[in-house]
Amino acid sequence: MTIKRILIIDDDADIREATQICLEITGEWDVLTASSGSEGLIKAAAEKPDAILLDIMMPGMDGLTTFQNLQDNPETQNIPIILLTAKAQSAEQRQFTRLKVAAVITKPYDPFSLSDQVAEALVEKL
């Protein structure tokens, strides 16, 4: 299995670190991180990861705005995006399913199954 690169965009340092460790240990991912939407846009364009894990609720540029910017950029528009969200209400879930995202993973997530959830979401994309 080849090493895959994933970019985590999340403003919470603890979540970034825990997610990175889970993906590196259980899924053999090469993990990049960004602490804001704007930093994530720059890293995504520069590094061209195989996938992006994107938090929805962030200060400044939120996840949906970041997602739209990624979609609008020809350099990043084909990178599969998985949304990480604490918003589990059915109205929000419907909104997310209308977006062209690979999957929506609800926080808090099980760190031991996260890598499998990501792999499953990307099975046709990678």
Automatic annotation (TrEMBL):
The Response regulatory domain, residue ranges: 5-122
A GO biological-process term: phosphorelay signal transduction system
Phosphoprotein found in the keyword field: yes
Protein name according to UniProt: Response regulator
Gene3D superfamilies: 3.40.50.2300
PROSITE patterns: RESPONSE_REGULATORY
InterPro entries: Bact_response_regulator, CheY-like_superfamily, Sig_transdc_resp-reg_receiver
Residues carrying 4-aspartylphosphate: D55
Record keywords: Phosphoprotein
UniProt organism field: Thermocoleostomius sinensis A174
